[in-house]
């Protein structure tokens, strides 16, 4: 306790641990503050879940996604009390254990936690991994944001606990343990992972974002009690000098300290796992120990110097463009040879080739080598882009030696730059980059790193800002083009849907009636076009559309034989309404007045024949009239005649798709993947072995269900029905590209590879 601690400590807790004395009183006060505020935060969060899920349901791209959100709403309403109680109970247990002197073990010590990485990291289910990434990202962001207040809480709790070290990961009200407690309580919710991820975002927004209030109140209470009232949190700025010093310590052969959870426990645990795997790898060396010469280990400065020489040499070598369909095997060989080149260069600088280098440095060199080997094998990147990014191996090895956080810190500028370059490169194709602007931008960033990067790590921030500015500028133009393509496609589909609706209504009403050619022609052409425009302008539920349908019924009824005075009377009552409706409808579809009068004249003659006022023409007269009949009425070009829609109904493309039981197994498998695609997903389409196009799923039609694809410039590449796309994928002419970050994919692949390497010796025993 501080010497300035007042003699009287106010007891704010209702549950005291008598054996803990004044320290116990303060710990109970902290528990009281935390319980009250967290109960308020978690309740506030759940008040917003319904609205968030309802908004997402309204904007869902298809009915299946909409149902996921509605089902999630129902499940959350039902399970909310259990989740809230579970979360608060877990926090209470952590605080009780803390007050009782039982400290949580940080993940870096090897104790299993829900977020801990392991050798089996790559085998974790996709949902579990996605959930872990959401949690760890949340923890890392908030530990960084709250660093000042959290540091003060840690220090004061440490004083109260008799000097026991309290870290972010072991603080019972720290972001890490709170996030883990909420994840544990969320196991009660059997909702779709998309729903869970939304809830985690809301937890971040309404609980984690409010923790500064909790920490400030906790610090204020402990300061009033005299616990470190003058404490100041000095933020240590880490530059290249400090990082290099850390590298020098490692180069001297010292055992590295456990990795701090810079972004999250999972990131730190992942790197700890990698170290363990590299250690197991060294236990089975390929080079016999007798062949290793002894001598002083290279220092960090020597490594940086040798790499700088190699970097300057690489900067002067122009990169040869990779021909389409070319192989990156030669580049891969160069990546694998870097360690040998580095040893040779160290020998040149020192005058004596070192027999080995420090363990940590060797692990770093191998890890960076595996990273760039992965880049050259990653089919999510076009080969031309793989060649460009592979040139960054030396700068990234320097960065990793200068700053050991590169692999443990998700928000590290160097890591974000490489992820950003890979994300931009994923969308590249010759067709979409005819002006070469994307290729030249990535090439320029690579060359600047090779030419300018010495030991100033801020260059990664500057280049990342330039890349983001380029991407934002292109994204705005692409979004405008993409919007125009979607609107055009949506317009065509609405027109087609309206044509089919009009055709179906008229065909259903005609039924088995044998209509005279004149009446049939008016319905199938002129009136059908009016119905289409009415649907498009007013909608299918409008009064205007219902009136148009009543006209169809009346028009068909007017063709029935007239044999009685009552029938003649009924027909005469129909005719004025028919004429008014025709005049109005034909004028709306841009018929000229002369054409309308000509049509009405033909109808007057027909109806006078129906009423017996004039004699009906003889069959031979009908034939002669047909031979010299006037040209059909002109139809506006903006609307296609209904006759085509009638033919389409008989030959509906949807009928071309086989029944579910007739779909080939490989197509059925791809169809399941297609159904899970979301807008924003990138695919690669291959027309043949030498040409490919990369396209993003831009829009899924709510009417037809067709998938619209655009390239990085927002221009249409293709559109498919789900079945058509599944067939293309099953034939190997299209494949889905990964959506997660390059660095994350690489780390998972490296862990998997090292895990199998470690298992191999055991298999041979």
TrEMBL record:
As recorded in UniProt, coiled-coil segments are 478-505
Start and end residues of each stretch annotated as Disordered: 1-23
Residue ranges annotated as compositionally biased, kind Polar residues, are 1-17
* Assigned keywords, A-Z: Coiled coil
Q: Does the keyword Coiled coil apply?
A: yes
Its name, as the record gives it, is: DUF1631 domain-containing protein
């Amino acid at each position: 306790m501080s010497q300035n601690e007042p003699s009287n400590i106010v007891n704010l807790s209702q549950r005291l641990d008598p054996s803990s004395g004044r320290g116990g009183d303060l710990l109970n006060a902290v528990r009281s503050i935390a319980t009250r505020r967290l109960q308020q935060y978690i309740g506030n969060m759940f008040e917003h879940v319904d609205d968030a899920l309802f908004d997402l349901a309204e904007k869902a791209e298809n009915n299946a996604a909409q149902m996921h959100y509605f089902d999630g709403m129902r499940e959350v309403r039902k399970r909310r009390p259990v989740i809230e109680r579970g979360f608060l109970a877990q926090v209470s247990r952590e605080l009780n254990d803390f007050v009782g002197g039982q400290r949580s073990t940080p993940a870096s010590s090897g104790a299993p936690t829900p977020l801990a990485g392991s050798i089996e990291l790559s085998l974790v289910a996709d949902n579990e991994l996605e959930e872990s990434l959401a949690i760890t990202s949340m923890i890392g962001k908030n530990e960084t944001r709250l660093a000042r207040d959290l540091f003060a809480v840690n220090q004061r709790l440490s004083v109260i606990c008799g000097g026991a070290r309290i870290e972010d990961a072991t603080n019972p009200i720290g972001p890490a343990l709170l996030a883990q407690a909420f994840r544990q309580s969320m196991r009660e919710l059997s909702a779709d992972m998309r729903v869970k991820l939304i809830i985690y975002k809301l937890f971040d927004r309404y609980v984690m974002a409010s923790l500064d209030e909790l920490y400030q109140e906790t610090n204020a209470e402990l300061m009033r009690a005299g616990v470190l009232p003058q404490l100041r949190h000095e933020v240590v700025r880490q530059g290249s000098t400090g990082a290099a010093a850390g590298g020098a310590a490692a180069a001297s052969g010292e055992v590295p300290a456990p990795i701090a959870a810079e972004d999250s426990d999972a990131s730190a645990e992942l790197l700890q796992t990698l170290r363990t795997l590299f250690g197991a790898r060294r236990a089975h060396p390929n080079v016999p120990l007798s062949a290793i010469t002894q001598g002083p280990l290279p220092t960090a400065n020597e490594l940086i110097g040798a790499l700088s020489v190699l970097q300057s040499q690489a900067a002067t070598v122009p990169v040869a463009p990779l021909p389409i369909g070319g192989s990156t095997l030669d580049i891969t060989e160069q990546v694998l040879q870097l360690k040998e080149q580095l040893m040779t260069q160290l020998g040149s600088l020192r005058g004596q080739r070192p027999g080995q280098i420090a363990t940590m440095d060797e692990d770093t060199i191998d890890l960076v080598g595996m990273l760039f080997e992965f880049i050259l094998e990653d089919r999510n990147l076009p080969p031309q882009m793989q060649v460009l990014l592979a040139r960054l191996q030396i700068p990234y090895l320097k960065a990793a030696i200068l700053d050991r956080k590169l692999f443990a810190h998700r928000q590290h500028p160097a890591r974000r730059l490489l992820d950003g370059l890979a994300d931009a490169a994923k969308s590249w194709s010759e067709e979409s980059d005819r002006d070469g602007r994307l290729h030249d931008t990535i090439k320029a960033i690579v060359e600047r790193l090779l030419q300018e990067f010495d030991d100033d790590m801020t260059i990664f921030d500057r280049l990342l800002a330039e890349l983001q500015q380029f991407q934002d500028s292109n994204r705005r133009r692409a979004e405008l083009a993409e919007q125009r393509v979607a609107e055009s496609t949506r317009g065509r589909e609405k027109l087609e849907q309206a044509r089919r609706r009009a055709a179906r209504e008229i065909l259903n009403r005609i039924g088995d009636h044998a209509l005279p050619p004149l009446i049939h022609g008016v319905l199938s052409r002129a009136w059908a076009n009016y119905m289409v425009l009415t649907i498009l302008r007013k909608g299918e539920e409008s009064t205007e559309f219902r009136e148009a349908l009543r006209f169809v019924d009346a028009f068909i009824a007017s063709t029935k034989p007239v044999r009685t005075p009552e029938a003649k009377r009924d027909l005469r009552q129909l005719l004025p309404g028919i004429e008014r409706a025709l005049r109005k409808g034909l004028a709306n579809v841009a018929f000229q007045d002369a054409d309308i009068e000509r049509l009405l004249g033909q109808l007057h003659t027909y109806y006078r024949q129906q009423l017996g006022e004039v004699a009906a023409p003889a069959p031979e007269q009908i034939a002669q009239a047909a031979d010299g009949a006037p040209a059909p009425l002109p139809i506006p070009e903006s609307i296609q005649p209904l006759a085509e829609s009638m033919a389409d109904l008989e030959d509906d493309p949807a009928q071309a798709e086989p029944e579910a039981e007739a779909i080939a197994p490989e197509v059925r498998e791809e169809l399941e993947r297609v159904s899970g695609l979301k807008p924003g997903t990138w695919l690669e389409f291959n027309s043949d072995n030498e040409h490919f196009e990369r396209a993003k799923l831009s829009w899924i039609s709510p009417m037809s269900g067709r998938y619209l694809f655009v390239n990085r410039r927002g221009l249409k590449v293709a559109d498919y029905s789900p079945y058509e796309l599944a067939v293309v994928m099953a034939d190997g002419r299209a494949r889905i590209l990964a959506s997660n970050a390059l660095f994350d994919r690489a780390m998972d692949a490296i862990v998997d590879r090292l895990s199998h390497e470690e298992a191999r010796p055991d298999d041979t025993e």
